[in-house]
Amino acid sequence: MVLAGGRGSRMGGVDKGLQLFRGVPLALHAARRVRPQVASVMLSANRHLPEYAAWGMPVWPDTDGSFAGPLAGIAAGLAHCSTPWMLTVPCDTPLFPQDLAARLAQAAQQARAPVAMAAAPQPERDGPLRLRTHAVFCLVSVALHEDLEVFLRAGGRRVQQWSGQHGCAIAAFDRPGDDPQAFANANTLEQLQELHRQDGAARAP
Q1: Hey, is 53 helix, strand or coil?
Q2: Cα 193 to Cα 80: distance, rounded to the nearest angstrom
Q3: What is the pLDDT of residues 129-171, one digit of tens each?
Q4: pLDDT tens profile 33-49
Q5: Is 18 helix (H, G, I), strand (E, B) or coil?
Q6: I need a surface site. Which of 72, 166, 176, 180 has the fewest CB within 10 A?
Q7: pLDDT(8) > 70
Q8: Is the pTM value of this prediction over 0.85?
Q9: Distance of alpha carbon 1 from alpha carbon 85, whole angstroms
C-alpha cells in the first residue's frame, strides 16, 4: 500500500503523490520501486482519484473522508488486502530500501510480532547517531484490521501508539552498505527540490 492520502499541508496543499521525482509522480515512483518486493500494489489516496486510478492499480480512499492520517490509509488497505500481510510505504520517501519487505518480514518473524517497523540512524543535535523509527514503513498482519478500526473509532491517530500495543518489531537499516538517504523524505517543496539535487549528484557519472 502506497500512502498518498494526506492533505499536503506543508507543501501548500498540493497533492504530494502527484509531485514529480525523476520525472514521475511520487506515488507512481513508490509503486514501481516496491512492486518487485510484493505480490501486488494498491494506493491510498483521497483526492484526484481518476489520475491515480489511471495507473492501473486499485485506489482506496479513507472510509470517512476526514483525512485522519496514515492509520486511516492503512485501515483502508487492510480492508482490501488479499494477502496475510500488508507492507506500507509513504509516497514522499522515494529512495526507500529495495529489500524493505524482506527485512521487515524477517524482523516480524524473529519477534513473532504482528507488526514490524523500519528504523534507521539519524544524527542528534549533539552529533551522535541514534536509531529513529519510521512509522509508516511497516509490515502489518491483516489479522489486526478490526483492532485498528476500533483504535480509529476511539480517536487514535498515531501509528506508533497503535503498533506499540502489539509488541511491534523493529528492523534496523544500519548495515554497512545501507543508503543513509534511504528514508529521507520530502514534506515541503524545498525538501523535494533538495532530494532532486542530491539524487542528481549521486547518479552523475
Answers
A1: helix
A2: 34
A3: 789 999 999 999 999 999 999 999 999 889 999 999 999 999 9
A4: 999 999 999 999 999 99
A5: helix
A6: 176
A7: no
A8: yes
A9: 11
Helix ranges restricted to H, the chain: 26-34, 49-53, 70-80, 100-111, 145-153, 159-164, 189-203
Residues 6+ apart with CB under 8 A from 110: 169
Please identify which residue in the block is written with the cell numbers 527540490.
193
Nearest C-alpha neighbor of 116 from the set 52, 69, 167, 157: 167
Q: How far apart are CA 64 and CA 15, in angstroms?
A: 19
For residues 64 and 140, what is the distance between their CA atoms, to the nearest angstrom? 21
- The pLDDT value recorded for residue 83 is 96
- What pLDDT does residue 9 have? 61
- Alpha-carbon dihedral sign for residues 188, 155, 64, 42: positive
Beta-sheet pairing, 20-21 with 24-25: antiparallel
Place of cell 492503512: 74
Cell of 59: 485506489
